[in-house]
Write a structure and sequence with these properties.
The protein is mainly β. 0% of the residues lie in helices and 24% in strands. It has one domain. A hairpin with a 2-residue loop joins strand 1 and strand 2.
Length: 74
């Protein structure tokens, strides 16, 4: 439910583009400028504020560049 394969899969050893749209109550994830989201999930809680967290995969350096989070107006 909270994971989907990406086709074609991005190179795990190179930078790739990810766009995450937080539009209450939905979260949509787009990879490498795809027109359709590769993942769409509904928020787990009805919070009105808080933090957004990112984590890296096993043995990954976890590098981020030009990170932006787009929030819709509540």
């Amino acid at each position: 439910m909270y994971e989907n394969p990406i086709d074609p899969a991005p190179d795990p050893d190179a930078f790739f583009h990810v766009k995450i749209v937080l539009e209450k109550p939905m979260i949509r994830v787009y990879v490498n400028d795809t027109p359709e989201p590769c993942l769409t999930v509904e928020e787990l809680a009805q919070r009105t504020g808080g933090w957004v967290g990112f984590w890296k995969g096993n043995k990954s350096a976890g590098s981020f560049a030009n990170l932006r989070v787009l929030l819709s107006n509540p």
